[in-house]
Design brief:
Family: Belongs to the G-protein coupled receptor 2 family.
GO molecular function, one term: G protein-coupled peptide receptor activity
Number of strands: 7
Shape: elongated
CATH superfamily of the largest domain: Rhodopsin 7-helix transmembrane proteins
Mean pLDDT: 77
CATH class of the largest domain: Mainly Alpha
Structural class: mainly alpha
Subcellular location: Cell membrane
Number of domains: 2
Pfam family, one: 7tm_2
Low-confidence stretches: 1-8, 39-43
Radius of gyration: 32 Å
Membrane topology: Multi-pass membrane protein
Helix content: 55-70%
Strand order of the largest sheet: 5-6-7
Largest sheet: 3 strands, antiparallel
Order of helices and strands: HEEEEEEEHHHHHHHHHHH
Amino acid sequence: PPPKVRATHPDCSVVLYFQEQEAECLEIIRSESQTPAPPGLPGQQGCLTEWDGVSCWSAVPVGQSRAVACPDILHVFKKSKALIWRNCTESGWSFPSPPYYNACELEAIGSSNDTEAKASYFVTMKVLYTCGYSTSLAALFLAIGIFSCFRKLHCTRNSIHIHFFTSFILRGAAVFIKDAVLFSDESIDHCTMSTVNCKAAIAFFQYSVLANFYWLLVEGMYLQTLLLLTFTSDKRYIWWYILIGWGVPMLTVCVWVVTRLQYDNHGCWDDYTSLYWWVIKAPILLAIFVNFLIFLNVTRMLAQKIRSPDISKSYKQQYMRLTKSTLLLIPLFGVHYVVFALFPEHIGVDARLYFELVLGSYQGFLVALLYCFLNGEVQAEIKRNWGKWQSSMESNVFNLATQDFTA
């Protein structure tokens, strides 16, 4: 039997419904053409099975009729008991009566103005998240360069920050790659596209999203470790953090890819209504909720340390600064994703798109700002090296002037 076409996206349900019906009808036509007609009933004395673009009309002898119902597509056609008839004449099938556009009433789908407004909305969204990811990528590359160039900034904490920045860079790059592969050519039918390139782009996108969430989790775990170990870190933990941040997403995506190849290898693997989507979604939800618990525990520990009479004033100020940073890091911990975590994908689509695409695109810039550009240690190191460079330049100028004078 021919492979059944299944939906890869809810918006493609109409197109794929008719393609599935057409495939079934063409298979019936193919089987009838391979079956010899019974003796005394030549094939030309009737109307053969026909696909008219909407319905499949089974073969009937001359003088008989067929009736079909309106296409059964939810939220597209209103439920109707009306039937469309066609007669088999000596010259072939008659025209449908009544016509489809009279018998099958469409659901209210909005005016052309609504369609134009929706198209304009998505164009605006794409411009906003493109600007956001571009800004974030520039800031993240600069932040990684700062942490890498200055030797005094080489430590476990900043090493984790670099991995964290890299996960945001991968996520931004994955968005641009996915847009380029899936939407660069408007002539491509996205509802039936099922190429290796588009599947690879979706798999890379899912890996970058998972890695981003798990490095968010690592940052939360590391902050909790700093408090538990009295602001001292153990370098042995860095390998566990790397294993969690990069290894768990890689294992998850490999399982998801093998599952899709074996059991659900259709479309471009961007069907968020599929049960196999939970292979990706479940680890993301786990990281979000564990991070949320870590955030609550960190807040509790900070409150206890600040109220403690045994803590000196300087330490209290240090804890207060960390508390303010922690409160600013709420979006970095992915707490706002909890709002949408347990809702189906089709609920609150506009709000979800705004949070995940527009606000999420600027998240990398916020990370670089908090962890690097507003970091007092980084600012002091930049000022120190800037002063050394200025002194070196003044010394060189003085030496050159002295040489010219003595010459």
